[in-house]
Amino acid sequence: GSTLEIKNLHVEIEGNEILKGVNLTIKGGEFHAVMGPNGTGKSTLASAIMGHPHYEITEGSVLLDGKEVLEMDVDERAKAGLFLGMQYPSEISGVTTSDFLRSSINARREEGDEIPLMKFIKEMDEVLDYLEIDKNMAQRYLNEGFSGGEKKRNEILQLMLLKPEIAILDEIDSGLDIDALKVVSKGINKLRDDQFGCLIITHYQRLLNYITPDKVHVMMQGRVVKSGGPELAQRLEAEGYDWIKQELGIED
Ligand code: ADP
Ligand code: MG
Ligand code: MG
Q1: Phi, psi at residue 102, to the nearest 5°?
Q2: CB of 111 closer than 6 A to ligand 1?
């Protein structure tokens, strides 16, 4: 398994400091949840790690097995085994889901070692079945006209086929009805083994009824302010975030 270490990460957007020193370590085999009120920088954390150009890293580092991720270009990050599921996945017109998946898989393999087409189709069909996704979706342009639930299932389809070392999933549960939530959770749980590490960013505790995290972290105002086990998520569900603000003397 791999280890992702986020150390003292500071990130600015258009001159405003959004992340003010985030520290987190995720190892292969571990599921971590990051929770927190809206606007605290959860998506900024995910986007900065994946190299979104709007986010300026002013301090800190992100190491994957000791290698500086922030110095890799975006393709290299994926090739090194990082996966990001976006809160708002983008539409790619003119590229079918199937072609996108196959080229993403091949981008992680060495040249000359591309996945054979038949093997790819077989693997994709198995995962489509597992996630209860209509086979026709594979031939549609990526995310174009997809419903919110279809986009999220598609993210998990990508995740299951790409088999990254470490995945960061940003609000993979947002906008899902209970059936879609169960399917998405089933997919993520299927990946659980001692090699795969996952950072699950969520505003709601609900997802964590289906995916039990090993550790829960609370982010507020650009920092991880509290960490604990699954019981922390349950307390947040019952009591909200105010008690943490009071405990830490944080003003709104
Ligand atoms: P969360 O995911 O926790 O809801 P975000 O990371 O999306 O929080 O946002 C953190 C802060 O950064 C918010 O105050 C938000 O308004 C600001 N922000 C996010 N994206 C941009 C952007 N593109 N330009 C300016 N400010 C942004
Ligand atoms: Mg948000
Ligand atoms: Mg967000």
Answers
A1: -65, -45
A2: no
What's the whole-number mean pLDDT along residues 205-226? 95
124-149 pLDDT, tens digit each: 999 999 999 999 999 998 888 888 88
For 238, residues 6+ apart whose C-beta sits below 8 A from its C-beta are none
> Is ligand 1 within 6 A of the CB of residue 88?
no
Residue 62 counted as domain residue: yes
Identify whether the C-beta of residue 218 lies closer than 8 Å to the C-beta of residue 227.
yes
pLDDT of residue 87: 63
Is 213 buried (19+), middle (13-18) or exposed (0-12) by CB count in 10 A?
A: buried
Mutate to test the pocket of ligand 1, among 40, 171, 202 (most ligand atoms within 8 A of CB): 40
- The CATH number of the domain holding residue 55 is 3.40.50.300
Spacing, Cα 13 to ligand 1 middle (Å): 8
Sign of CA dihedral 229, 234, 240, 246: negative
129: in domain: no
Let me know if residue 40 belongs to a domain: yes
ipTM given for this complex? 0.93
**Number of structural domains, the chain?**
1
Q: How many angstroms separate the CA atoms of 179 and 182, rounded? A: 5
221 within ligand 1 shell (Cβ under 6 A): no
> Which residue is closest in CA terms to ligand 1's atom 25?
13
Neighbours of ion ligand 3 (CB under 5 A): 42-43, 87
Residue 21 lies in a domain: yes
205 in contact with ligand 1, CB cutoff 6 A = no
Report pLDDT digits (tens) over 176-197.
889 999 999 999 999 999 999 9
